[in-house]
Design goal:
By secondary structure, the chain is α+β, with helices and mostly antiparallel strands. About 35% of the residues lie in helices and about 20% in strands. The chain has one domain. A hairpin with a 4-residue loop joins strand 1 and strand 2. This is CDKN1A interacting zinc finger protein 1.
């Protein structure tokens, strides 16, 4: 499980997590 401590959000897959990190929602 991948967790973004900046956005306090967790992602099930690495692909989803990398997509979040590259996305606009993640600042």
């Amino acid at each position: 499980k991948f967790y973004c401590y900046i956005c306090k959000t967790d992602c099930c897959s690495q692909q989803n997590f990398q997509s979040h990190m590259a996305g606009i929602q993640h600042q």
